[in-house]
Automatic annotation (TrEMBL):
It comes from Guopingia tenuis. Its main location: membrane. This is Uracil-xanthine permease. It is a multi-pass membrane protein. Keywords: Membrane, Transmembrane, Transmembrane helix, Transport. GO terms for molecular function: xanthine transmembrane transporter activity. It is found in: Membrane.
Length: 420
């Protein structure tokens, strides 16, 4: 690990809260949509992140939260009946173990072989696709109240471009606070209802806070069941998220300016992701995945200290154990989340563009043009390919796979071979 936790300053604790805000919405959305417990999702996200940091030597500033890739399979298995959650848990554990197998393969094949498969001409466009494919959700969320979304966007842009020092490092959390204050004001003055800003007449609904208990009810815990049909529905999705993991670690490394493929090693990041996912299944949480939202926060704040991510993990654990606190965060209007996503998802795509530009590819070569073109069009334009009723392959997965294949198959010109 880095410096002792006690040496962190108050400013860094605030940055940890900012990372908490970035992960919260997506992490609780998966259990809400699938019928799993949001508090357990927060708990396993925090614990999973700490497990990941332990396995990766504490040097990769990654946060693990609920994975959307498994959502359709979880919905099909649980089917609105919480009695089926143990079956989903068994499948999630096996999916995590598949990651462990991938980690072993990567370790014995060697990192150089992996890196040759994923040069910047492939990873740059893939990172761009990751950010842009998330953008529709930002638009959808922001459109629930454009006035509120614009207020938050203006606040974030102002902090990023017109402030200095520590304030400049807190655009997300300040944008959230300003937006939340504006929502409270609009509700209190009656503007929300009279202007039709929300269908319910209120931008903020405190019902969840009133109904939530102060402490987590451990009676909600269930033991996993290893049901073969459920395992066959969930576990194969790890084949898809494996490629997404590589893209996320590449993105994180591009933001931080470090080669995490070499240190701590891709095998360690895969192992950390897999063990964290299996642990989440054991406790009854959804599968974990590396979060682009928090990588976006790293890009905005330019503070890459992994200890701050671990602080966010501890905060998530606390929120998972104290129901009232988690319920308060659930009251954040969708439009505010959408506005924040505007910035974070755009930053991810910008990082991919920067990674591509800094590698100085020779676009006079048709080979490079074709690789980038095919990745962008496939990743952005191809809908998910349905393998079974519950398992599909995303356009991002296909784009990454095709990009890797083209990079291997298409011949390089002599001057590019000399450059490499």
């Amino acid at each position: 690990m880095n410096k002792p936790l006690k040496r962190l300053t108050g400013k860094e604790y605030v940055l940890g809260v900012q990372h908490l805000f970035a992960m919260f919405g997506a992490t609780v959305t998966v259990p809400i949509m699938t019928g799993m417990n949001p508090s357990i999702a927060l708990l396993t996200a925090g614990l999973g992140t700490l497990i990941f940091h332990l396995i990766t030597k504490g040097i990769v500033p990654v946060f693990l939260g609920s994975s959307f890739a498994f959502m359709s399979a979880l919905i099909a298995i649980i089917g609105g009946n919480t009695a089926n959650i143990p079956k989903a848990q068994g499948g999630i554990i096996v999916a995590g173990l598949i990651y462990v197998v991938f980690a072993i393969l990567v370790y014995f094949l060697g990192i150089e072989r992996i890196k040759k498969l994923f040069p910047p001409i492939v990873t740059g466009p893939v990172i761009i696709v990751i950010g842009l494919t998330l953008s529709p959700s930002a638009i959808t969320n922001a459109s629930s109240c454009w006035l509120l979304a614009i207020i938050v966007l203006v606040a974030i842009i102002t902090v990023m471009c017109f402030t200095k020092g520590f304030i400049k490092m807190m655009p997300i959390i300040l944008g959230l606070l300003i937006g939340y204050g504006a929502a409270l004001l609009l509700d209190a003055t009656g503007a929300t209802a009279s202007w039709g800003l929300a269908e319910s007449g209120k931008l903020i609904d405190f019902t969840a806070v009133e109904q939530a208990s102060w402490f987590f009810d451990f009676s909600a815990y269930t033991l996993p069941q290893f049901d073969l049909s459920s395992i066959l529905m969930i576990a194969p999705i790890a084949l898809v998220t494996f490629m997404e993991h590589i893209g996320d670690i590449t993105t994180n490394g591009a933001v931080v300016g470090k080669d995490f493929y070499s240190d701590p090693g891709l095998h360690r990041t895969l192992l950390g992701d897999g063990i964290a996912t299996a642990f989440a299944g054991l406790l009854g949480g959804p599968p974990n995945t590396t979060y682009g939202e928090n990588t976006g926060v790293l890009a905005v704040t330019k503070n890459y200290d992994p200890r701050i991510i671990r602080l966010a993990a501890l905060f998530a654990i606390i929120l998972g154990l104290i129901g009232k606190f988690g319920a308060v965060l659930q009251t954040i209007p969708t439009a505010i989340i959408g506005a924040v996503s505007f910035v974070l998802y755009g930053m991810i795509s910008s990082i991919g563009l920067r990674s591509l530009v800094e590698s100085k590819p020779d676009f006079s070569q048709n080979r490079n043009l074709l690789i980038v073109a095919v990745i962008l069009v496939t990743g952005l334009g191809m809908p998910a390919i349905q393998i079974t009723d519950t398992v599909s392959i995303s356009g991002l997965f296909v784009a990454t796979l095709v990009g890797v294949l083209l990079n291997v198959i298409l011949p390089k010109e002599k001057k590019e071979e000399e450059k490499n």
